[in-house]
Amino acid sequence: MNQTFQVTGMTCGHCEKAVTRAIQQLDPQAEVTIDRSQNTVDVQSQQPREALARAIAEEGYAVTP
Hints:
By secondary structure, this protein is an alpha+beta fold. It has two helices and four strands; from the N terminus they run βαββαβ.
């Protein structure tokens, strides 16, 4: 299932890696595509949306519903 999140606070490649790592710790098979210029994180995963958003937020980034 493909899900898109609006995520603010990502400013560099390290931020992208932190978000990707947080999602893949929850779902190692997840495919993550990040577009910092659009503040979007696209996730292909079977995990619930709430769990993915929580994983991103726990890294310190604001997730807009």
